[in-house]
Write a structure and sequence with these properties.
heterodimer; A: alpha/beta; globular; B: mainly beta; 16-stranded antiparallel β-barrel; 4 helices; 17 strands
Chain lengths: 151, 389
């Protein structure tokens, strides 16, 4: 009886740990990070630089090659997660910046893709492009794309 | 004849630049794509006073803006941009298709979070928070911008210039700074010129000059915007007839200074702008007619984005211009405007807006109107369907 109770405790404990691990894994999958398609090969950038790129104020990488920026559709919840956590900007602030540039003729808006699968495909197709993906989606494609740590 | 029918040196420069660039653009056509954009705002307004953007009584008029433009990157540092515009806004608008802006942009510096460059051609004057985007429904806070700062009847006085314009931007930690400045020649439409001259005066404007600059700071990761704008505008007035009973030849100079603040908190936007103006009028023939007047105005507004579909706003504006002889408020030279409005956004690229203004004073009314001595408060209703791509 005592052995059975101990086994039961162990099993419950293991179940709790497994559930916690799944939860963490889900949160990690839900965490969006900046991703770029080399060349150039960049792995870190300052938050100022990241904001300038996603605000479409800066158009070229340090080597002079063009930056192509991909974003998810307007009301996609991933936008809030990425823009707020990584760039410390709200989606509507960026949208206003893009629209101001377009309608005053001083710049262009980023390219809107359909969803994360489309984001992944477009990033791989266009060297020098930048976007954002969840960790879960990125994990199987690290050989082709660089995760950028925004400092 | 008014200068809008003459070809200006800046337009010649722009045409030459575009002609020079055309072979390069054609040669690289496979690699370069024009990025198009456009917008259409269709609606109307009604007032129970004559003179708002119109000389006639019981004004009701269409409000129509249609714009189509393109952006063509030639190289990573060079781009060409232009937009055509058609507007109808009572009698204050040109009612024809015209070049709203058209310029060549050379990005001289770009590194990290830092950029600077030059634009040459017809540029939007970047002044206050909204002058350069006043035609874009998704970017302006209401159908009619605050008249205390962005006088609708003077829109075509300072909206664009044929100019050389410089810009600079730098993103620091927690702060982004930008500076825009332009030096050139104002594009004053016939309609705006009428508002700048005494009623019925047979005279025209010439040698319009502009120096406009704005410094803008984005703090708290863009939650707080502060701006200072400066504009030095002047033109000569030339009488059309030497038999004028009152000589009109002379010069007018306007010095505007506007202080702007905008705060974004959750789904709220709080905006305040205040402008001080110095208007100097010099008469060549009768210097005793010289005068300096100092109008000033401000507004406070609150906008609430209830959800992605609904947005509402409330605004209070005040404008005052004292009589230079008596230093009193003549009724034609002040206004208190209380406005409320709502916007319904259907999809990401269209919306419908409604607004109501209750106005005391007649400073918003046309100088050419006969109703400026009516002291009764008046009402303004406006509605507009707005779409863009």
């Amino acid at each position: 009886m005592t052995v059975m109770l101990s086994l039961k405790k162990i099993l419950v404990t293991l179940l709790i740990y497994a559930a916690h691990g799944l939860l963490l894994s889900a949160q990690a999958d839900d965490h969006y990070v900046a991703v770029m398609s080399p060349p150039p090969s960049i792995h870190t950038m300052s938050s100022n630089e990241a904001r300038a790129i996603f605000s479409m104020r800066v158009r070229t990488w340090p080597d002079g090659s063009p930056i192509t920026v991909f974003v998810l559709p307007d009301r996609n919840p991933a936008n809030r997660k990425f823009f707020k956590n990584q760039l410390m900007l709200l989606p509507h602030q960026l949208k206003r910046t893009w629209e101001r540039m377009v309608y005053t003729g001083i710049g262009s808006a980023p390219i809107t893709v359909r969803d994360e699968a489309d984001m992944l495909r477009r990033l791989k197709e266009v060297p020098g492009s930048i976007g954002y993906l969840s960790q879960g989606v990125l994990s199987d494609h690290r050989a082709d794309l660089n995760q950028i740590a925004v400092l | 004849m008014h200068k809008q029918h003459r070809v200006h040196s800046f337009q010649i420069l722009l045409l030459c630049a575009m002609a020079w660039l055309s072979p390069a653009a054609l040669a690289a056509l496979d690699q370069i794509q024009i990025q198009w954009h456009g917008f259409a705002n269709v609606g109307g307004y009604y007032t129970d006073r004559d003179g708002y953007l119109n000389d006639e009584k019981g004004t009701q008029a269409p409000l129509l803006d249609i714009g189509v433009g393109g952006f063509l990157p030639i190289t990573q540092k060079l781009l060409v941009s232009a937009q055509l515009l058609y507007r109808q806004a009572g009698e204050s608008s040109r009612d024809d298709i015209f070049l709203d802006y058209g310029f060549v942009d050379w990005r001289a510096i770009e590194s990290g979070a830092n950029a600077a460059g030059v634009r040459i051609g017809r540029v939007k004057n970047i002044y206050g928070l909204y002058n350069d985007v006043r035609d874009v429904a998704s970017l302006r806070p209401s159908i009619f911008l605050p008249d205390a700062i962005y006088k609708e009847k003077f829109r075509d006085f300072y909206h664009t210039s044929d100019a050389v314009s410089v810009y600079w931007y730098k993103d620091f930690t927690g702060l982004a700074l930008s500076l825009d400045a332009s030096l050139g020649k104002l594009n004053i439409s016939d309609q705006a010129a009428r508002e700048l001259l005494p009623p019925g005066a047979p005279a025209h404007l010439d040698d319009e000059r502009s120096l406009i600059a704005r410094a803008l700071a984005d703090l708290l990761q863009g939650q707080l915007r502060l701006a200072y704008s400066y504009a030095d505008l002047s033109y000569d007035m030339e009488a059309d007839s030497s038999r004028m009973p009152e000589p009109l030849s002379g010069e007018a100079a306007f010095l505007f200074q506007t202080y702007s603040a905008e705060l974004f908190v959750a789904n709220w936007t709080f905006t305040a702008e205040k402008t001080h103006t110095k208007v100097s009028l010099e008469n060549d023939v009768a210097p005793e007619g010289n005068s300096v007047i100092r109008p000033s105005g401000y507004y406070l507004s609150a906008q609430w984005e209830i959800n992605p579909t609904w947005r509402v706003f409330a605004r209070y504006e005040s404008f005052t211009q004292k009589n230079p002889q008596t230093h009193a408020h003549d009724h034609s030279q002040f206004a208190r405007d209380r406005a409320i409005g709502a916007t319904f956004r259907g999809q990401s690229n269209w919306q419908v807006s409604l607004e109501y203004h209750r106005v005391h004073g007649s400073a918003w009314l046309s100088n050419q109107s006969e109703g400026n001595d009516n002291h009764a408060p008046w009402n303004l209703y406006a509605m507009q369907f707005q779409t863009w791509f």
